[in-house]
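Many introductory courses stop at the sequence. We go one step further.
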Amino acid sequence: MSPTMLSWAATLPVNPAGTPASAVLSTDALYASLVDKALDPAKYVAVIESCAVLSHDAAARVIVRDVVFRGAPRAIRERVTYTAPSVFVFEQLAGGGGEGEGGKQEQGKGEEGEGEVVGTVFNIISAGADGEVLLTFAFRAQSGGPMGFTELTPRDELVAAATAAVKGTIEAARKSLAA
């Protein structure tokens, strides 16, 4: 029997009414921040403890990394692909990831980012009907998989987690713009 798959998403405006002109994020600035997030996610997403980038092919726009989520027993191997100016795909791979703190690579595991996909996260920059910049995080994951959610997890908890990730990413992108 196939595992139960869960799907949920959250979308927020990047520059809601009242955003000071000096803090407005363009699509290009947000895209650059999402590339940085793919390489150094802990400063963008509170539930990520650490990340070890195993490979980054900037020309092909592919990153392979081991991510340690707070409270997780081991790192999760992810293959990240991104397409300018708007789509990032984070594929969580079965059997990947190193053991222990900081995502140290397991003996015999390669950096190629291969394996069965057990969860996928999409980060999508888009425009609303009035042209406002929107950021969506959409999730698809196996129940009980690396993200830790199950079919018993209340839908509002899933959406709240996604909303917090989107909000944290926008705030971190805005801080990097100000720096």
